[in-house]
Amino acid sequence: MTAASYRSLTELSAIAWRAAAAQPFSPRAEIETAVNLLGGLTFTGQALPTSHGAVERYLKPRDLRHPHANALLGALVETAPAIDWIGGQSGYGGEPDMQAFCANYAFCALAGPAGWARGCSAVSDKVGFNFTVQGPNVTYPDHAHKAIELYYVVSGKALWKRGGEPWVERYPGDVILHTAGMRHAMKTTDEPLVAMAVWISDINSGLVVVRA
Ligand SMILES: [Fe+2]
Hints:
CATH class: Mainly Beta
Number of domains: 1
CATH topology: Jelly Rolls
Bound molecules: fe (ii) ion
Structural class: alpha+beta
Order of helices and strands: HHHHEHEEEEEEEEEEE
CATH superfamily: Jelly Rolls
Shape: globular
Oligomer: single chain
């Protein structure tokens, strides 16, 4: 059941990515790379489900006006009990903003390098494939990684910051590209955020929270 559900989520994600690539100003080359990499995944169905409070509180069915985001959210809600959800960035214990963040943020790795996360169902050294759930009024502080990353907003909304750009509000169906090493942050207001993220390069690179 898990492998089939993961495959289905991945197929719906490819449909959503392709539709997003057709939009003006979209990062088409990176989206094409992501779709090709996701298409090469083989799911094993070995993930061990783990629940997380943020998922239980904030991953809910909603009637979204965006058809591809709506389909993805429905499939994710259905698959969520079979997913190994992980709390966010455990390496920053004792830092108040990170503790507040970790209490209300969860992600899952449907694909990635072996040992990258407990829930990797498809092992890949080329692509990381995640869904994230971020509660309302939560800030994911500035962070960076060498991996080139694409985000897709599935449900809710969030303010997004890329590099030195101002905060921009993002909605279901929006795509956000983080280039290699680009500092970025996301903060929610009155709604939780459900998002999909794909790492398309350097997937063994670490993530660092940027304090300076
Ligand atoms: Fe990132």
